[in-house]
Amino acid sequence: MRVCVPVEENNALESEVYGHFGSAPAFMLFNAESESISWVENINKKHEHGKCNPLESFGNEVPEIVIVKGIGGGALGKLLAAGVKVYQAEADTLKENIDILTTKGLRNFNPDGTCGSHAHKHEMSGGCGHHHHHDHSKGCNHHHGEGGSCCH
């Protein structure tokens, strides 16, 4: 099982899950069979809204599982179409999330919680993790109203 989390810093298994998949500086890939871990730079982090290519950074090491706090709808759709399972992070670090995944399981990422346009203003309230002063390290966490979404 190859597990990926978006990260800002390389702290091996103690790496904190970055708030938004597409704009994360890098990814940590954990191979459960070999218990190896690797740092992969996100070569696609500067993309136009809706143009994320989430698999581009991985080359031949496509993960089977991605654990995220926030992710855009396009990236989520592309990962799912490639057969990658996408789960909602329930803890701060890669290790904590892997422990939860292997013991009680993580929830599938809810497509209704995906991140959308930054062109609108939000009030803080539950769901994705940041105000829109765009600190994606905090995830997405605000109310969008009917049909709204966050991030990109």
Please, could you describe this protein's structure?
This protein has 152 residues and is an alpha/beta fold. Helix content is 12%, strand content 20%. The C terminus is likely disordered.
Main sheet summary: 5 strands, mixed
> Multimeric state of these chains?
single chain
Taken from the alpha-carbon principal axes, the silhouette is globular
Category by helix and strand content = alpha/beta
Order of helices and strands: EEEEHEHEE
Computed Rg: 14 Å
Range of helix content: 10-25%
User: Count of helices?
Assistant: 2
**Mean pLDDT over the full residue set:** 77
What is the element layout, followed by pairings?
Elements: E1 2-7, E2 26-31, E3 36-41, E4 65-68, H1 73-81, E5 85-88, H2 94-103, E6 123-124, E7 142-143
Parallel strand pairs: 1-4, 4-5
Antiparallel strand pairs: 1-2, 2-3, 6-7
Features:
single chain, 152 residues, alpha/beta, five-stranded mixed sheet, 7 strands, disordered C terminus
Q: Briefly, what is this?
A:
Helices cover 12% and strands 20% of the residues. It is an alpha/beta fold and 152 residues long. A hairpin with a 4-residue loop joins β2 (26-31) and β3.
